[in-house]
Amino acid sequence: MNRIELNNMLPAVFAGREDTNSHVWLREVTFERGKNYLITAESGTGKSSLCSYIYGYRIDYSGRLGFDGTDSRNYTIDQWTDLRCRHISYLPQDLRLFPELSVIDNIQLKNQLTDFKTRKEIEDLLELLGIPEKIDQPVGKLSIGQQQRVAIIRTLCQPADFILLDEPVSHLDDKNNRIVAQLVASEAARQGAGIIATSVGNNVQINVDTELKL
Predict the structure, then answer these.
(1) Average pLDDT of the segment spanning 102-126
(2) Which secondary-structure segment (H or E) carries 18?
(3) Which of 23, 64, 139, 180 is 20 to 30 Å from the Cα of 73, by its Cα?
(4) What's residue 16's pLDDT?
């Protein structure tokens, strides 16, 4: 996949608006593979909705969302499954971890499907993010910042043309923000992937090609 295309899209909850100050809604926007995008937003402007639309979780919008020229509304279940396994890796704002499972089990739920990282590579990522001793602990016993780091590692455990990050560093300090940014940028560069990150204030410290206001 080389392009994600938004054409005159608008969440259903915003129906009736004829214009908006947004650079995204009711506009034509193309996200290109290999480029980095930052979407800044105020709360309630639809950034998590946008991520859900791109990932196919929701379809309550007007306008058109396309992938390489194909309207996503025509996608089959198999096409959406392939997109989520091979083309778009998604970090949701709410993380969607299983609190009763250990850190390694949460990560391996994805990695065992993709066979993308070795156990040693995962352990090295936990070390870099300062939580190697948490590997066998239930995620529910971790702080929200530690959980966010676990979810970021899980996000990197698959092939992707685009890495979609919804507020990826909202609970991280400056040091861990820099580490996460370096890890994500390095993985994206290795795969030739684009990065689409959202933020309501604490921006992930990647080099940005295009910044859009939602």
Answers:
(1) 97
(2) none
(3) 23
(4) 85
Is the torsion defined by CA of 83, 84, 85, 89 positive or negative?
Answer: positive
Q: Which two tokens stand for residue 159?
A: 């092939």
Residue boundaries of the structural domains of the chain:
3-213
CB-hemisphere CA count at 13 Å for 71?
A: 9
- How far from the centroid of its chain's Cα atoms is residue 68's Cα? 19
CATH of domain 3-213: 3.40.50.300
On the question of pLDDT at 63 being above 90, the answer is: yes
Reference 24, options 3, 43, 44, 40; nearest CA is 40
Element (H, E) at 188: helix 174-191
- At 2 the pLDDT is 98
Sheet with strand 194-199: strands edge to edge: 88-91, 162-166, 194-199, 36-40, 210-213
Alpha-carbon distances of 136 from 111, 142, 150, 156, rounded to whole Å: 16, 11, 12, 19
Alpha helices in 36-94 (DSSP H): 47-55, 77-82
pLDDT at position 38 is 97
The rounded Cα 76 to chain-centroid distance in angstroms is 22
Please answer whether residues 142 and 150 qualify as being in contact, where contact means their C-beta atoms are separated by less than 8 angstroms.
Answer: yes
Residue type, 76: T
Query: How far is the C-alpha of 43 from the C-alpha of 46, rounded, in Å?
Result: 8
* Distance, CA of 59 to chain centre: 18
| Cα–Cα dist 200/196, whole Å | 14
Closest CA to 65 of 7, 22, 2: 7
